[in-house]
Amino acid sequence: MKTLALVTAVILSSAATALAQSSAEPRLPVPSDDIGSVAPALETYAQATLADKLWRRPGLSVRDRSIVTVAALIARNQTSDLPAYIKLALDSGVKPSELSGIITHLAFYAGWENAMAAVAAARPVFVERKIGTEQLAPAHMQLLPADEKADEARAASVEKAIGSSAPQLAQDTTDVLFRDLWLRPDLTPRDRSLVTISALIATGQFGQLAGHLTRALNNGLTQAEASEAIDHLAYYGGWPNAFSAATIARTVFEQARRAKIILNTRESQCPTS
Amino acid sequence: MKTLALVTAVILSSAATALAQSSAEPRLPVPSDDIGSVAPALETYAQATLADKLWRRPGLSVRDRSIVTVAALIARNQTSDLPAYIKLALDSGVKPSELSGIITHLAFYAGWENAMAAVAAARPVFVERKIGTEQLAPAHMQLLPADEKADEARAASVEKAIGSSAPQLAQDTTDVLFRDLWLRPDLTPRDRSLVTISALIATGQFGQLAGHLTRALNNGLTQAEASEAIDHLAYYGGWPNAFSAATIARTVFEQARRAKIILNTRESQCPTS
Amino acid sequence: MKTLALVTAVILSSAATALAQSSAEPRLPVPSDDIGSVAPALETYAQATLADKLWRRPGLSVRDRSIVTVAALIARNQTSDLPAYIKLALDSGVKPSELSGIITHLAFYAGWENAMAAVAAARPVFVERKIGTEQLAPAHMQLLPADEKADEARAASVEKAIGSSAPQLAQDTTDVLFRDLWLRPDLTPRDRSLVTISALIATGQFGQLAGHLTRALNNGLTQAEASEAIDHLAYYGGWPNAFSAATIARTVFEQARRAKIILNTRESQCPTS
Question: Do A78 and B136 touch (CB under 8 A)?
Fold first, then answer.
């Protein structure tokens, strides 16, 4: 409840107001003079549609919604209200090391300068909340074990797609992303996938969305959660991007269903014991 | 003429200069030291190509050009010169309630934070021009009548496309957008369509452009106006986006022509009286 | 070496630090407190992956990498660190007139307001380095000779694609872009192509990428350079955009190879003497 009140405060306040109030003050829904004085309807949508409905829907936790929103804002380079949403993420259970991991992940999936801008937005929040490096994941960590077989298949598919035209990029995809970044334990693979698909959808980059959505399901994101994330991103990434994403999700979900049926049929035919 | 002089002032001035001069001062074309001192050719293009040609072409009114430009800048989150272009919009006949409606519309079609940034850009202009909420559309208004039959067809098509993968998004598309936002009378459906296609083109979101272009023609935007808007957006949204939009427009215009021929043929075969 | 040290300084410093130090001070790699205090891993990637590896790869010169990076940042409207990268460009051999040409080119290929933001970012650097207009290309220059036959083919193809739906855009494409902007001698056609494809890739605008990549090869950019540029843009434009670009490059490179084989075969069959 406290978190949901903060949600309202963040949405209804201008960035400046939210920053001034959110840490010190009671996290009550404060109507923002700014929005209402320029667009009265927008203030009503903020309260009735976003704060009271969208963020309270049970299909996706407030923690996940804040991860989706932070990822969308970083990927879209929209930093004005990012500090307020970073605070909201911290207040709804996202750990500082996870925020740090999200920013690092998006340096590669959204662009280096997006991460630099996110660092600048996160820094004052970390200072204010006395979050020191001891609360963050160190630069070098014991990596998660790689799924060698699956990664070989991935590398072969990358090699086929771009090995002849961009061999260095194919190499970096393995060395920098899948044998390093994706194996860092500061984010769970499921959250890392959620961050990735949120960034892709929020910026309308659909070329790799089907692949990353499939990976997300394999990493433990449920179809229901992915579906709610897409709806959430309609608000923070614009309706057209979400709509296009939903059509891609339909195909991915159907393939997942067929793959499962085949698997189940095989299992019933070929018992393992 | 006065408005066209202001156009030149806006284009040729840096944001700061334009803001300082446009309200108090005579709206004369002032060459900007800033542009010329970094890129002399760019200053010439500003005067000769944008101010003297593009904005004066009769195919699209200055009012419409300012709507297209404001929509493009909000959708692209480019707020430095947005206050100057908002003033230009007000000076060329866009009502404060319409600007308010544009920002609200784009909260959903471009992303919530784009609207928040637009509110921050519009606020000082509204204060300076003493535009109070009595000049804005209220949050709750008598909505325009829905075209029930057409909207049922739209909802069925959405349901087919994304109903299985994103049921909540399909529901919100009806409840929030087409049974509410699109029926608000603070923007005419024709202007709302112009804002929508401008945002889609300026951000290179082509998945729904054909549909929204068709809707725009049905809402009273002429093909000639849509065509000029695409050319205008080459300058404010980048040439490649406009070029891609023009290829989609070709298909949409051809379909509209064929649909009309079929209709005319039917009418001549089946006289209504 | 001095330039590479500056590269490190730019990447590892926050924008503010880099600006403060780069001109007066020795250009040493200074670890940034900012990045490390929010994301320790990101600081390591900055040094080990970007500064020590990416920028030092011989496949693309530091001059070209700085052109690619500046073009990407302007096209993506990411101006915080743009002054630091503009300085790096100047220090690695990009002439002020070329930077001016890049900004002017991107006014049309990325959007007018992107160029305005770039002007604002470049101005203080030009002032600090005492770069006057005498070092810049004048607004009016003797244009490069047009390849009439090739441009007629281009115009015919544009006419076919968008002549019916956007005749003004088709006309402006000839008058403003290919009979004027592209013929300005302040950028070599090869560099102009490099700027164009960098902007397209960094913003995920793939509709015209194949055409501009083919043009780039014709203008003297090698496949190896284009390939390295795509890898470089994975870091500054996000991995997904670079990956999609690499799949398009594969097709373009294969077509170029086939065209060459056909040409060679013809030449051996039909000796010219």
Answer: no
